[in-house]
């Protein structure tokens, strides 16, 4: 099952989801859903961004309301991911996770590393964030000319091998903090990336005129 979680950051078009997705709104992310004509299956968080009237309307429309205290140990988005996992989701798409608050943005970008058992992606307009774990190979779909950056997370990313990228890597390492992996380019509609050890963030910037399907 795929869950799509709307966070309370900026939501930039295009926004992609399918009718079968399990929609969760993390507190103020509910307003993104409503602006798109969606009623989330679950609204979760401390709910300090929503009025009582809005919550009553959501309840009447069938949304499940899961409220936590304002003083809590996790952000609303992390609570939403935990709820998606407990509901049976093994794939999660995060929308509206980036914004003007850099602390929240950085925390949200790093958050998927706390859930290595889940396939979590983050999308922001034409940008897509894909997380690659040790021992995995992923296929990145796009178009020739799309920009793809490789950013190590949590430590050095070791044994990286790529195919169909303009600047190939062949079993090479990217040290934590290195910018060597930034601004690579897709040479075909699909590129492959393998990682031997570490954790790697793959950021794809799809060409606006040719959005990824």
| Sequence of secondary-structure elements | EEHEHEHEHEEEEEEEEE
The number of domains: 2
The N- and C-terminal alpha carbons lie at a distance of 19 Å
* Mean pLDDT over the residues: 94
Strand content: 25-35%
Radius of gyration: 18 Å
Unreliable segments of 5+ consecutive residues: none
Number of helices: 4
The CATH superfamily title of the largest domain:
Thiamin pyrophosphokinase, catalytic domain
Q: From the 3D structure, determine the CATH topology of the largest domain.
A: Rossmann fold
Architecture of the largest domain, CATH level 2? 3-Layer(aba) Sandwich
Secondary-structure class: alpha/beta
- Under CATH at level 1, the class of the largest domain stands as Alpha Beta
Q: Indicate the multimeric state.
A: single chain
Shape: elongated
Major beta sheet, strand line-up: 4-3-2-1-5-6-7-14-9-12
User: Largest sheet, described in full?
Assistant: 10 strands, mixed
Helix share, percent: 10-25%
Question: Count the strands?
Answer: 14
Describe, in plain words, how this protein is organized in 3D.
This protein has 213 residues and is an alpha/beta fold. It folds into two domains: 2-125, Thiamin pyrophosphokinase, catalytic domain (Rossmann fold, 3-Layer(aba) Sandwich), CATH 3.40.50; 130-205, Jelly Rolls, CATH 2.60.120. Helix content is 17%, strand content 34%. It is built from four helices and 14 strands. The chain has helices at residues 29-35, 52-60, 76-86, 102-110, and strands at 2-6, 22-26, 42-45, 64-67, 91-95, 119-124, 127-133, 137-141, 147-152, 157-163, 170-174, 184-185, 190-194, 199-205. A ten-stranded mixed sheet has the order 4-3-2-1-5-6-7-14-9-12, sandwiched between helices. Strands 8-13-10-11 form a four-stranded antiparallel sheet, with no helix packed on it. β6 (119-124) and β7 form a beta hairpin. The two termini are 19 Å apart. The mean pLDDT is 94.
């Amino acid at each position: 099952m795929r869950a799509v979680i709307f966070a309370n950051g900026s939501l930039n078009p295009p926004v992609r989801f399918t009718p079968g997705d399990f929609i969760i709104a993390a507190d103020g992310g509910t307003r993104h859903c409503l602006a798109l004509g969606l009623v989330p299956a679950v609204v979760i968080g401390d709910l300090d961004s929503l009025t009582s009237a809005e919550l009553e309307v959501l309840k009447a429309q069938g949304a499940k309301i899961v409220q936590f205290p304002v003083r809590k140990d996790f952000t609303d988005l992390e609570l939403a991911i935990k709820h998606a996992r407990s509901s049976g989701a093994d794939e999660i798409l995060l929308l509206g996770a980036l914004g003007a608050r850099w602390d929240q943005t950085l925390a949200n970008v790093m958050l998927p590393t706390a859930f290595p058992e889940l396939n979590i992606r983050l999308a922001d307009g034409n940008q897509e964030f894909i997380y690659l774990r040790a021992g995995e190979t992923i296929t990145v779909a796009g178009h020739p000319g799309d920009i793809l950056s490789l950013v190590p997370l949590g430590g050095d990313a070791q044994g990286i091998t790529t195919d169909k990228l303009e600047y190939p890597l062949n079993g090479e390492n990217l040290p934590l903090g290195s910018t060597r992996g930034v601004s690579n380019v897709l040479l075909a509609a699909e590129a492959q990336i393998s990682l031997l050890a570490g954790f790697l963030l793959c950021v794809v910037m799809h060409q606006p005129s040719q959005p990824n399907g």
